[in-house]
Amino acid sequence: MTAKLYDLTxxxxxxxxxxxxxxxxxxxxRRIDLSNFExxxxxxxxxxxxAAVDVGFxxxxxxxxxxxxxxxxxxxxxxxFALPESVKRQYPHQKAxxxxxxxxxxxxxxxxxxDQKESYQITRPYMAELWPTEAELPGFQATMLAFERKSxxxxxxxLSCFAHKLGFADDFFTRAxxxxxxxxxxxxxxxxxxxxxPEVQDKLDLWRAGAHTDFxxxxxxxxxxxxGGLEVCPGKEMDAQAWTPIPPDGDAITCNIxxxxxxxxxxxxxxxxxRVRNPQPGEYMGPRYSLAFFAQANRSAVIxxxxxxxxxxxxxxxxxxxxxxxxxxx
Length: 330
Description:
With about 325 residues, the chain is an alpha+beta fold. It has helices at about 10-15, 40-55, 65-80, 85-90, 140-165, 170-175, 260-265, 315-325; strands at about 25, 30-35, 55-60, 100-105, 115-120, 185-195, 210, 220-225, 230-235, 240-245, 255, 275, 290-295, 300-305, 315. The strands form 3 sheets. An 8-stranded mixed sheet has the order 2-3-11-8-13-6-5-4. Strands 1-10-9-12-7 form a 5-stranded mixed sheet, with no helix packed on it. The chain has a two-stranded antiparallel sheet with strand order 14-15. The longest helix is centred in the middle third of the chain and has 27 residues, at about 140-165. Residues about 1-20 have low confidence and may be disordered.
């Protein structure tokens, strides 16, 4: 299979011309059962590989994170975003480290307009002075760090399956994403997409999140029931703009392959486009919350596929390259 990494110049032009497609195409977003993982690992690895190669997106069920733990994380995120802006501004986004709070700051090359959301990024080694105080938000730090670690553990299970299929040691990616190292850069991102005010509901020319690929190895996304909008389009089908909705399911974690793993797999595992569209007239127009864990290899980890299709590069340098390619001045 041949895959391709894009800079989004052409996609950006299409979006500005108003030609971003809305065609819904049915695709099989497969649900992978992780129960009894160690005993079923070979079977699960085959299922994950097939789903990833086919669409690049899949959903995990029986993943070991209890529903109440996910609900607690969502409740904490909602409380954080409900804080006064004057409080949130005390914990500003630090771009070089991808930590902290920002609002309507991310301009996708695919749209040329700011994503209609606010977010708060947690990357363990770089959080000094960026946590709300216990007086401002009791229990927030402990809850989110515990949830980040549980997400990391699920992500490492999935990545161990891909390591096996690629011919690496099963713990290959676990060692590359070691949270005990100072250059750990996996990130838990709390997201709040703003409600659509009634006066603009018939002028939905903005995007909650424009079309993009993720730069990491693997993304784990938690969605709230009834708060949809996520859509995927495999890169080979971008010309047709054929998008497939992925409805939220509170029992499942939606996962996708990122650019970093695509390179590490010598392009055998595709990193595909996805977006979060605004609701259409007649749909729920309220706020949308999601939680995303981005498994990004430690900065010093060396990315080199088994067939050495591309030169070896550190994960830190690779991320800089992807950001430069996709967020050029325009």
